[in-house]
Amino acid sequence: MRAVNLIPQDTARGGRRLGAGAGSGSGAGVWVLLAVLAVAVLVVAANAFTGRQLSGEQAELARAESAAQTAQAKAATLASGDQTAALRKARVDTIEGLVDGRFDWSRSLREVARAVPADVDLTSLVGTVAPSTQLAGGGGGSLRAALPVPAVDLIGCAPSHSRVATLVSRLRTIDGVQRVSLASSEKTDRGSLSETDCRATDKMPQFQLTVFYDAPKGLVPAVDAAVAGGAPAAAPPAAEAPAGGAQ
Residues 179, 75: one domain? Predict the structure, then answer.
């Protein structure tokens, strides 16, 4: 049989033109869809990258804060150790100062006892480490304030002025003595003196003298402070007994 085309020629040509237009519109839509998908992928990737970067920075900040706290704890420990060491050193220095500033009274009084002649009697002996030392019964000599160092005030009686001079000479030979100052050596016949006064009973001269010692190392700052504060460290020297006797 012979095929017969029943579609008019004009209709067939219009249909072909319609199919071509539909195909062109469908291709443009695909490209738009692909572009939108690409943009979405880029946005998601950027967000993921930004999130990872932010997480890394937060982790780094946390590590820095932890390191700072550790450093502060170590600094506090070191500061506490320094304070402890400083306190320990201050205590050691205080103890050493007390040891260095301690005055050996037992040796000094023993040497004074050896220096006193057998015919010389002591009626008063007062030892003080500084002129500012307060004594309940008093008894300090008139020359005690001359030097801010340990000193011994002696009051007693001797057979003669020459024996007083001998006592002064012996006291000067004691190790550690820097000065022996004689305040007085007098003899009187006055009957108004008490019976315990050697000048009234035995007609012996009575003497008053002060033995000054070298300042221990621990007392040197105190001596300097006393001088700076107005202590009479520069008082005029008292008359000392001559080698031949005191008048």
Answer: no
